[in-house]
Amino acid sequence: MLDAALIQQCADPGIEVAIVERFIAEAGSGNPLKVTITSGNRVILPEAPKTQEAAVRLMQRFVGEATVRAGVTQFPVGYGISDATQITTNYVDPCENIRMGTALFGKVYRIVSHASGGNGGPVLGEAIDAWRTGTFRDDYVFGLPDPGPLAEELQEEAAQAAELETPETVD
């Protein structure tokens, strides 16, 4: 299980801790060096990296040819970069990965929430699904514009729903 203090220290401050915990429990990994590589319906299973540098080499090798996710939040490695040389150890540094991942997940959550009109738990589940698949309503969710901040009551509703549904452990 991830240290709650690490989540508190590193997560986007605009997202409730309970939401971050549920997001990481359902879509992330307890292993900061985990690199997941998929191509279509195939999962590519190279040797698991043992160091941050090995993880960077693995990500650089497959980004642009397959879907590559990395670290605690299983961040989409190709997002926001134009060249594989831009991939750094930030993707597999636990705090940096949580910072980047929760900031991007916050955007995904706001997109889903605005499109669905709020509603806590179901929206959070839809946002987690959109994060995992990279799509929401047939659009590449990471490329959609950020609709802006949520109303305070929607944030509180989502946090309450996340607290009720947060699993106890992260793999």
Description:
With 171 residues, the chain is α+β, with helices and mostly antiparallel strands. Helix content is 47%, strand content 11%. It contains 6 helices and 6 strands; from the N terminus they run H-H-E-E-H-E-E-H-H-E-E-H. Strands 2-1-3-4 form a 4-stranded antiparallel beta sheet. The protein has a two-stranded antiparallel ribbon with strand order 5-6. Strand 3 (67-70) and strand 4 form a beta hairpin. Helix 1 packs across helix 4, helix 2 crosses helix 5 and helix 5 packs across helix 6.
Measure the end-to-end span.
7 Å
Q: In terms of per-residue confidence, which ranges show pLDDT below 50 for 5 or more consecutive residues?
A: none
Beta-strand fraction estimate: 5-15%
Number of strands: 6
As a percent range, the share of helical residues equals 40-55%
Oligomer: single chain
Shape: globular
- What gyration radius follows from the Cα positions, in whole Å? 15 Å
Based on helices, strands and strand pairing, what is the structural class? Answer: alpha+beta
Mean pLDDT: 90
Strand order of the largest sheet: 2-1-3-4
Write the element-wise H/E pattern from the N-terminal end onward.
HHEEHEEHHEEH
DSSP summary: helix tally: 6
Please describe the biggest sheet, giving its number of strands, its sense, and whether it closes into a barrel: 4 strands, antiparallel
